[in-house]
């Protein structure tokens, strides 16, 4: 993170903040001066995050529970910055997709983003606060991937939702963008892509010849949250090493 990206005293909510990208974003925002609320459904992850960054407030919620989210997020706000990072990836071939996997993916990858953004944006508007929302999408929203029928579809829907949000919230001085990473070397990413044959097939399609590191995504999110991107809304920032142009 560049030192001039300051978020001093700005209130930020990060979902899926227990692990990986969300956790790193929460920590980076806190260290840049933001007052961060980290949301996750895993209490142990939030407890360790609070020990790592004592200034971070935590919310332990299942985003599929709309009533609980409405009450807790509403009470915790208002926020000026929102990062919708929480997601699930239940990988199944098209012919094997189950109803439960479809519903869970729709609930978290799409429905929760819509719902949390509604709560936060309504408060921004009521308080007259300009704001920025970043939705964490994926290169999978742009390119079909084997065994990713539901994941690709929910991320594609998220991209279009973000564009509509940008259109409707722009007059209220609220910007909405997505980041669309390739494979990211989180702990889970390293496990899922540890097979050299599997990883080589993907890396060979990336002109830069590597997967993304967590900081690559964090720095892009911070840029889109910051005033450095004051004229950017409705955009998808590809963090894919050139995957889509190959």
UniProtKB/TrEMBL annotation:
KW Oxidoreductase (keyword) present: yes
Cited InterPro entries: L-xylulose/Carbonyl_redctase (IPR051737), NAD(P)-bd_dom_sf (IPR036291), Sc_DH/Rdtase_CS (IPR020904), SDR_fam (IPR002347)
Example GO BP: glucose metabolic process
Origin: domain of life: Eukaryota
Keyword Iron: no
One Pfam family, short name: adh_short_C2
Signal peptide: none
Keywords recorded for this protein, A-Z: NADP, Oxidoreductase
Gene Ontology molecular function, alphabetical: carbonyl reductase (NADPH) activity; L-xylulose reductase (NADPH) activity
Subunit composition and interactions: Homotetramer.
Family: Belongs to the short-chain dehydrogenases/reductases (SDR) family.
Name this polypeptide is given: DER reductase
Protein species of origin: Pteruthius melanotis
Gene name of this polypeptide: Der
């Amino acid at each position: 993170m560049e030192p001039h990206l300051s978020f001093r005293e700005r209130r930020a909510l990060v979902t899926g903040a227990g692990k990986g990208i969300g956790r790193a974003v929460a920590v980076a925002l806190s260290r840049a001066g933001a007052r961060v609320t980290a949301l996750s459904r895993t209490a142990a992850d939030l407890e360790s995050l609070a020990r790592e960054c004592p200034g971070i407030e935590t919310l332990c919620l299942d985003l599929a529970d709309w009533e609980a989210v409405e009450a807790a997020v509403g009470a915790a706000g208002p926020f000026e910055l929102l990062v919708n990072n929480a997601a699930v990836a239940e990988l199944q071939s098209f012919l094997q997709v189950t109803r439960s996997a479809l519903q869970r993916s729709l609930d978290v990858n799409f429905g929760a983003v819509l719902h949390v953004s509604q709560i936060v944006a309504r408060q921004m508007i009521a308080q007259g606060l300009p704001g920025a929302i970043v939705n964490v999408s994926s290169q999978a929203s742009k390119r079909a991937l084997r065994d990713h029928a539901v994941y690709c579809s929910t991320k594609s829907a998220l991209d279009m939702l973000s564009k509509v949000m940008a259109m409707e919230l722009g007059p209220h001085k609220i910007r909405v963008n997505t980041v669309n990473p390739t494979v990211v070397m989180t702990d889970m990413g390293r496990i899922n892509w540890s097979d050299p044959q599997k990883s080589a097939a993907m890396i060979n399609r990336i002109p830069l010849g590597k997967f993304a590191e967590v900081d690559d995504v964090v720095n892009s999110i911070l840029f889109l949250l910051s005033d450095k991107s004051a004229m950017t809304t409705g955009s998808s920032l590809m963090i894919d090493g050139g995957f889509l142009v190959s």
